[in-house]
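Dear support,

We are seeing what looks like truncated structure output for some complexes. This example has two components. We would appreciate it if you could run it in full and send us the complete token output so we can diff it against ours.
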Amino acid sequence: MANVSLREVRKDYGSFEAIKGVSLDVRDREFVVFVGPSGCGKSTLLRMIAGLESITGGDLEIDGRRMNEVGPADRGLAMVFQSYALYPHMSVADNMAFSLRLAGVPAAERERKVREVAGILQLGPLLHRKPGELSGGQRQRVAIGRAIVRQPKVFLFDEPLSNLDAALRVRMRIELAKLHESLAATMIYVTHDQVEAMTMADKIVVLQGGVIEQVGSPLDLYHHPRNLFVAGFIGSPTMNLLPASVTAVGPATVTVRLATGTEVAVPVLAGPLRPGDAVTLGVRPEHLNLGADGASGVAGEVLVAERLGGATYLHVRAGGGTMLVVQVDGDTPVHVHDRVLVPVDGHRCHLFGADGLALERTGRHPLADVTRAPRPLTH
Amino acid sequence: MPSSAALGVAPTANAPARRPARRSLSTLPFLAPSVIVLLLWMIVPLAMTLHFSFIRYNLLNPALGGFAGWSNYEFLLTDPALWTALANTLLLVGWVLVITVGLGTLLAVLFDQDFPGRGIARLLVIAPFFVMPTVSALIWKNLMMHPINGVMAFVSRSLGFTPVDWFAEFPLTSVIIIVAWQWLPFALLILLTAIQSLDHEQREAARMDGAGPVSMFVFIILPHLGRAIGVVVMIETIFLLTVFAEILVTTSGGPGLATTNLAFLIYMRALLEFDVGGASAGGVIAIVLANIVAFFLVRAIARNLAT
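Here is the complete output from our reference environment:
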């Protein structure tokens, strides 16, 4: 069992507060990803959990035990660092056995455990090499192996894949997901890469400026962003955020008019909104498409067409200075400077009030609350 | 390797990885001036020393001259003073290395910690290195170790002990202390920068693995310092084999031969006894000794640098 809970945790550097009261529960065997732009405090938060940074306020509990003053080695955690942080003068086997050696585990036992973990990670033939003789991916696996050997309650990962090339990163991502499954371990993972967050997480924690913006499953964040920041951060290319004004308020819809004059009815609860209020309409590029002539929608001119093969991103300039990114099929015969018409489907749109908070949607997306069922405990 | 490159043959033969070099033009004319100067710089004094060591050449007796055969060497090698001087040289080098590297490593770990006034403390600890050897020897002789006026004598007197007459009772130890004091900052400086280059995440990983301060030092910091320690040992050895000013200023090689090292012995032969021939023979022996030391040193350190 490994439940981690943070209660109003703060980190104060004197002149600057890096973490401004974070409360979070990480359940047993959950894969939690901290994501956010650089400087948002995600790494600091992880290092506070690890015990490498002191906690200046609030409580950190692991399995119900307060850990604020417990040293990093005694919290039952293992961490994989961005630079791998392998000990360059030790062989792979010694690197992995180092913590056991310090703990006074007998040599035969150490050897057995290292071989076992090396088997899981296919490191067997490399055990006698020095880290300097390994490739980036192999070093990464050794760093993970060093963590597994300790049999920690919680694995902590600090941007572990950011030093790998793109192809290897995809492979390691899959390996990590498999490892999470097979070890039935609790993992906390820090990244700035939203693809890593979306693909691996059971639960994503979006951080900005030392506060949690939103916690939820990947699809929850995608379909129900709580505010403008999360809406803009999750998804690629970024969600189109268009200024609009409310024209009509119904019981389950709010109708808004864009700067281009297009009217869109969005199925959200209006709350305190009144006709005439300024709002922001958000719609993802993949939820837009080109309409046939004569349909209603935003008319504009294609300024840039980014062709990725499977999909093409069109950057469309519409009236009123509105810029719109539309994702269309890669085979669509559109060219730069073509005039296009982009219908806007209100059901795929989000509305954000003047305070940046999203208006609650009338219905939840069917997949938004689906989480990976934890594997039943077998031991 | 460097000499073959300097002669201008290597670049085409030595670089198989590069494009087939079309540089058939000779680089020799460009290299020649500096190579010739360096060669003369080294060869001429060496040749003159060798030459002098085989002739009778005493400034007190200019009439005496001519080829001496091995007699200068014979005279020197049968002189017990040479063996005392050799032993003193090795003791001096060895102990100063032990003190500077040992204490330097500990101080480097200490100065790597964050404490108030660290910048000033670092400056102060580096300062002895900027004091010229004669001056520091004088300071130690007259202000620190003097049996009547010295600080050390004052301290032992105020504690009720008899002051120690350092240069009479422990002459070589005193010289070792002075030289070690001068070279400690150098060792500290090199080792401190080496410690600071230790990857921060590596230390944190070790902390997560359960390493306390002692295991951190033994398993992480010390292996990391191996290379830097090798460099310190090599550079210090080069300079310590020729320590001279400190001995001249404090003990003049005495009492007896207690602090006479090879460099001082050569000085005594050449400039106190005016026996240029005998001094040159001593110089040749010093070259041989330096090469023996260098041989082992380079082998040990090259292995260290290769990894």
